[in-house]
Amino acid sequence: MDDLYADYRLIVDASDDAIITKNLEGVISSWNTGAQRMFGYTAAEAIGQSITIIIPPELHGEEVEILRRLRAGERIEHFETWRASKDGRRINVSVTISPISNAKGEIVGAFKIGRDITARKQTEQALSRVSQKLIEAHEDERKRIARELHDDINQRIALLAATLGHLKQNLPDAAAELLPEIEEAGQQVAEIARDLQSLSHRLHSSKLELLGLKVAAASFCKECSNLQKVDIEFHAENIPQDLSPEIALCLYRVLQEALQNATKHSGTRQFKVSLTGGPEEIELTVQDSGTGFDPEDAIRGQGIGLSSMLERLKLVNGQLLIQSKLQHGTTVQARVPLRLKRQPGNKYRRTAQHS
Predict the structure, then answer these.
(1) Taking the model in full, what pTM does it have?
(2) Among 57, 121, 340, 341, which one has the highest count of C-beta atoms within 10 angstroms of its own C-beta?
(3) CB neighbours (10 Å) of residue 48?
(4) β pairing state of 28-31 and 231-237
């Protein structure tokens, strides 16, 4: 038994992960060399101390909750948080914590394995910053193209329409047979003007900036309904007046993408869109009763639209939930906390059922 225990100690000490045990008051009872390398405290310095020596003050409430869950017999897996080293460095960790029971089955402590994920988090943050800059550049280009369409192309189309109108009014009697062709050309020019205006609005919504998300979303649904010849039921409630521009733009773009995907692929002509504000978050839902799909297949394949929604939501710490059942429709939900935090943390969940 002594040899087995010695082998166990060798394995624990050889691990690069921090392996720590503590009692239910949070007092450290064992501390391996991995913990020493990670946090800078020797075993002699750490054992007998509270685990809060590596927990920053603002996260002490987190430790209280962890101890409560341990007392209830719960195992906590791959919990991501951060800790502080002896010299004050911030260390991002993924922690798995298991309750320890005595011979009577009573929970007396916890066995904790912590893995340093600082490098991974730094990479994620760097990628998030690149993603944010790409999205910002994309939005700037959308604005530029929308301005060009409105200020230049639309003006030239309007001038062409006026020229055709003048030509129609001053058409010589000898050329009266050209009147139907001129009228048809005028109608085509009017249709092109409407399509350009619609495209300009989709590229950049001035209503979103001036009137807010609720009005812009309602306007887009109406415009999409008229353009695609579909029925869109729109509902909005409790939308904050001071909603941040980042959140408003994110949800507006997600609405555009989700509704465009639905009208294109669902095979149905009726859709429901809702925007609902709550005390801590705002939720966008786009629902149809069409053919459905497998979200994972879309992500792995050509699901650029879904990837775009995920990237946008990541920048505002949002969550994307997709529920889809083949031949029974799809529901896309985007949830964004109202308090915007500048750190990556997107979650994606899906429920896909196959007939």
Answers:
(1) 0.57
(2) 121
(3) 10
(4) unpaired
What was the pLDDT predicted at 111? 94
Q: Tell me, rounded to whole angstroms, the distance of Cα 113 from its chain centroid.
A: 29
Own/partner contacts of 156-160, CB < 8 Å, gap of 24 or more, are 157/189, 157/192, 157/193, 157/196, 158/193, 160/189
Question: Rg (Cα) of the chain, in Å, rounded?
Answer: 30
Of 172, 175, 178, 224, which is closest to residue 198 (Cα–Cα)?
224
Alpha-carbon span 170 to 181, nearest angstrom: 15
Q: Which residues of the chain have pLDDT under 70?
A: 1-14, 150, 202, 295-304, 340-355
DSSP E strands in 204-304: the ranges are: 231-237, 270-277, 281-288
What angle separates helix 245-265 from helix 213-228, to the nearest 10 degrees?
Answer: 20
Q: How do residues 3-37 score in pLDDT, each as one tens digit?
A: 444 444 656 666 889 999 999 999 999 999 999 99
One of 3.30.390.30, 3.40.50.11190, 1.10.760.10, 3.30.450.20 is the CATH number of 2-116, namely 3.30.450.20
Domain 207-355 has CATH 3.30.450.40: no
Distances (CA, A) of 13 to 255, 348, 355: 52, 36, 51
And the tokens for 124? 């994620």
In the chain, where are the structural domains located? 2-116, 118-204, 207-355
What amino acid is encoded at 83 in this protein? R
How many CA atoms are closer than 13 Å to the CA of 295, on its beta-carbon side? 22
Give the DSSP letter of residue 205.
-
Q: Produce one character per residue of 142-167: b if its CB has 16 or more CB atoms within 10 Å, e if not.
A: beeebeebbeebbeebeeebeebeee
